[in-house]
Structures are given as structure tokens and as C-alpha cells.
Design goal:
This protein has 305 residues and is mainly α. The chain folds into two domains: 2-41; 66-303, MetI-like fold (Orthogonal Bundle), CATH 1.10.3720.10. The chain has helices at residues 2-49, 66-73, 75-108, 113-127, 130-140, 146-153, 170-194, 199-207, 212-223, 225-240, 244-249, 261-270, 275-303, and strands at 52-53, 61-62. Pfam families: BPD_transp_1.
Length: 305
């Protein structure tokens, strides 16, 4: 009797497993369908368009990989890729480094009302639409804006200029706007990570005579490997795919000083009617984003082994 019950239950297990797998697929299929229609299909069409010379309306002409060659040989297109990598310094390095310092400071004063105010103020740029932020910073950085007025008040009138209209300062100025936008997000992510660190580690370090800097370097930073990886990934993608802030503040100028791939793709596709070249640049940008994001994720996973 016992053997027959065991045999029946063993017979039912594969059927139950198959049923669970079927139910699981029924839950997944709607999401996969949306992903295929709104992500995979556009990527496939973009790759297809990149192999043709097309104005978006008339007949297309097969050119193979010529559009990809143009991306790397045309100075304007290639410089836009270089500008995107330059923005990584401002969009990624500045928010992550400052975010670590600010989060560590807030953690030490977490019981005070100042910590709550600081978190709220720092996160405000994430709530403000990027278009509004771009317009506001365009006013602040104008030749008669608040920044130049403050510099003149403290006796630094000689360094005032139209920060977004000067060839030497336009890209750093745009970069600082991006750093301001992303600083709050990085700070809150890192602060959340710090809240999970065991306080006993800090107490043991203090008993061994470690100061605040040694605690920060030896305990805080290593414990935030995952959070730092998330911050770097998000900010690097924001730098490479930047569009709205630059479109509102400089529109790629002066000249092509602040031209980035996202803006270049927009101009090529909708102003110059070079859909094939725009698609090739979009594919190159997607591959660059993947090439930058994957090593960061692998680095974070290796640190948890």
C-alpha cells in the first residue's frame, strides 16, 4: 500500500511541475510580449534602417555598413561620442564621490532635523522635470544671470562670462547641471546602503583607534560596493544617453561643443532626414551603453563572492 501511494505521488510530481511551469509562463507572456513589441522590435528595425540610406519618406537604398563607417569617420558624429564620454566625469564621478561624502555626513547627524532637511533638498532635482531644470540653469548661467552677479559681488567680475555660450566652459557647465540633477539620487541610494551596515563594525573600529576617515575607507566604502555599482551604472547611462538638459540649455552649441549622440540622432533623423545614419549612431550608442554597464555589473558581482 505504501509503495503504491509513493508511486502515485512520484507520478504526480512531473505533472505538477509542468502545470506550475505553464502557469508561470502565462504570467510571463504578457510582459514578454510588451518587451518584444516595444523594445526588441524597435531595436531590430533600427538595425535594419542603419543598413540603408533613407530620408524617412521616399525609397531607401542599400548601403550595408557604410553608415557605421560614417559614424567613426565623420568628425561631427565622432566628436559627439567623445563629448558623451567627457560628460561621464561630471554625470558619474562628481555625483558618486560627493554623494559618498554627503551620505557619510548625514549618517553621522541622522538624529537631527538637519539630516531630514538635507535629504529633502538633495532629492528635489529628481522631482523637478529636467526641462524645467535646464531652463532654470540657463537663466542662472546666462551672462546677466545670478551666478555672474554673485561673482561680481565678491570681486570676481573678471571671470564672468556666458557659461553656456563659451566654447571653453559650455560642456563643463552642462556637466555640472547633470551632476546637480544626479547628486540627490546617488546620495539617497548610498545613504540607504549605509543604513544596512552593522553598527558593531564601527564600534570595533573605534575600539581599535580608527578615526572617521579610516572608518569611511575601511568599512563604509567596501560595504557599499553594490550601491556604488548601481549609482555608477545609472549615471554612466545618463551621461551617454543625455538629451533633454542639453537640448534645452545649449541645443548642442556653441558650434558642436556640447553635441552628444542623443541630440545628434534627433537632428539627423528629423532635421537632416538622414534616418540611416541616425539609426547607425543609435545602434553604436546602444552598444557603448552595454559595453560600459556590463563590466560595472560584473565588478559588483565579483565583489559579493
Amino acid at each position: 500500500m505504501a509503495r503504491s501511494v509513493t508511486a502515485r505521488s512520484a507520478h504526480r510530481r512531473p505533472a505538477t511541475t509542468k502545470l506550475r511551469a505553464l502557469v508561470g509562463w502565462l504570467f510571463i507572456i504578457p510582459a514578454l510580449s510588451f518587451y518584444a513589441v516595444f523594445v526588441l522590435r524597435p531595436i531590430a528595425l533600427t538595425f535594419q534602417y542603419s543598413l540603408y540610406e533613407w530620408d524617412g519618406i521616399g525609397p531607401s537604398t542599400w548601403v550595408g555598413t557604410a553608415n557605421y563607417g560614417k559614424v567613426f569617420t565623420d568628425p561631427d558624429l565622432f566628436d559627439s561620442l567623445i563629448n558623451a564620454f567627457k560628460l561621464i566625469v561630471f554625470f558619474s564621478a562628481v555625483p558618486v564621490v560627493l554623494g559618498l561624502a554627503i551620505a557619510a555626513t548625514i549618517r553621522r547627524i541622522t538624529e537631527s532635523r538637519l539630516a531630514l532637511v538635507a535629504r529633502t533638498v538633495l532629492f528635489l532635482p529628481q522631482v523637478i522635470p529636467l526641462v524645467a531644470a535646464g531652463i532654470a540653469w540657463s537663466w542662472l548661467l546666462a551672462s546677466t544671470g545670478v551666478i555672474n552677479q554673485l561673482l561680481s559681488l565678491i570681486g570676481l567680475g573678471g571671470v564672468t562670462r556666458a557659461w553656456l555660450g563659451d566654447f571653453a566652459t559650455a560642456l563643463p557647465a552642462v556637466g555640472m547641471i547633470g551632476a546637480w540633477v544626479l547628486l540627490g539620487l546617488c546620495t539617497l541610494l548610498l545613504l540607504a546602503g549605509m543604513s544596512k551596515i552593522d553598527p558593531a563594525l564601527y564600534e570595533a573600529a573605534r575600539l581599535d583607534g580608527a578615526g572617521p576617515w579610516r572608518e569611511f575607507v575601511s568599512i563604509t566604502v567596501p560595504s557599499l560596493r553594490q550601491e556604488i555599482a548601481v549609482c555608477v551604472t545609472v549615471t554612466v547611462i545618463a551621461a551617454l544617453a543625455s538629451f533633454d538638459i542639453i537640448y534645452i540649455s545649449t541645443q548642442g552649441g556653441p558650434g558642436n561643443t556640447t553635441m552628444v549622440p542623443g541630440l545628434q540622432i534627433f537632428y539627423l533623423a528629423f532635421s537632416e532626414r538622414e534616418v540611416g545614419t541616425a539609426s547607425a549612431l543609435a545602434m553604436v550608442l546602444m552598444l557603448l551603453v552595454i559595453a560600459c554597464a556590463l563590466p560595472i555589473q560584473w565588478f559588483a558581482k565579483d565583489g559579493n563572492r
